[in-house]
Amino acid sequence: MALNRRDFLKALPLAYCSAAYGDALKKTKKPNILVVLVDDMGYSDLGCYGSEISTPNIDKLAGEGVRFRKFYNTARCCPTRASLLTGQYQHSVGMGWMTASDLGTDAYQGELNDKCITIAEGLKPSGYTSYMLGKWHVTFSNNMDKDGDKSSWPLQRGFDHFYGHLTGGGSYYNTPTMTRDNKRIELKDGEYLTDRVAEEAAEYIDNHFEKNQNNPMFMYLAFYAPHRPLQVPDKYLKKYQGKYMIGWDELRKRRFKKQKQIGLFDESYKLSPRDPRVPAWKDIPDNEKKLWDKRMAAYAGQIDCMDYNLGKVLDKLKEKGELDNTLIMFLSDNGACAESAGKGNIETIGKPGDNESYKINWANASDTPFRKYKKDTYEGGITTPLIVRWPKKVGNKGGYTDEFGHVIDILPTCLDAGGAEYPSKYKGNLINKTDGISLMPAFKGGSMPRRPIYWEHEANRAVRYGKWKLVSPAKDKKPYAGPWYLYDLEKDPTELNDISEKYPKLKKKMIELWDSWAKKNGVYPLDNSGWRPKIKKSVR
């Protein structure tokens, strides 16, 4: 029916209001949130952080977002995941060590306790549908069984869907504890974990925006790569074979040079010396160099493959018109892994069933320019890239921020972005206050509040306050507490010069800070007794 002029004029305000309301909805639409965590990746292993490894999708995120020069994790798999998910230091949520043992105290029970919320639980009141994919690793080992207590499985901790593995890993082809939601599944013969996790993530995104168009999405995508064992499809391994015949000494120099060329570091950074436990490449017998080359080629291939698969997820977001409405944060759970594993069989490296690692020799290069590795509280163990893309909020696109944060800041940032409040109670339980703060000011080019940040893992201790950092590497025998070393990270960011004798009062004050934090969080007693002794101590 045609409208006359008077009816048309009457309808105009209503039409205008409807259009304005629709525009307002678009303007106030909550962002999707994608947190991507990789496993055991060194600081310099991405192209946009100095590497020769091909990571075009991650580099594109960096070019369209902001890179943190310094961001911190907890130095180990389980504790980092616990802190990232809950916004608290790992000890206060029960994950002071690993999932392999319950040491009989609240801080070391081996899984998330009921004094915390996860990001998924925190975002639920704000209307988010949450998905977890990949490595979970915050459930006590005995409860990972399909008939075990599921109270700390992903769906019981706020996620709506889960596809991945509850364990720390073990294989890319026959990964134990593979689970969909609450049901145990298995990878089919020949299926590669990194591929499958990304494919499922893309499918979840597809289904989400078909069926839940009004609900924002939170996705926690935790790749197992590039954690050992060195298992990777041939096409990725062969792409890099021969490239590492230059050796680790030359690789460290080239990466450090690139880091300076791309503006990541200034002249205050000095390349730390080669680890004294690593021989010079020139001293490696010629008949062993191809073996070492293949180890690093497999590792590089795992990262290349991870980047390719992350691209599938980003492409799906773009296809759905949601990429620019998604806050993306990419980081690693700890520094490079120096653990030694495998039999050194050059024929089987990269293949299913092989258990090879790239060892301390290449880990030293992965963590360029820093000292030490996963488990350690020197910068090489706890520093990770953090790349943030969110066109609506991120300033200095393609640049860097000198502000630093910690994985305890991820939950507060997600809640801030999603318009959610951190609760004092959840499901009838009192919830600890969050230890973290929102990173939003740093995204916008602003400054973060000054605060101390703390570490402890297997009696390796540290505290950073402003430019000062105090570090104590663990001893092998009781009481396990080693001496403290003080560094000025503005003048000495790679921790080469201990200045504790020059500043005894500052050292004393920072020790007191750390001790107070440790007592509050149930860190004591320090324990560096080793994996097997700790498993024997388990009370369940």
Automatic annotation (TrEMBL):
Keywords tagged on the record: Hydrolase
Name of the gene: atsA_6
Transmembrane portions of the chain: none
Organism name: Sedimentisphaera cyanobacteriorum
Family: Belongs to the sulfatase family.
This protein's name: Arylsulfatase
GO MF, any single term: arylsulfatase activity
Superkingdom, taxonomy of origin: Bacteria
Key word Hydrolase present: yes
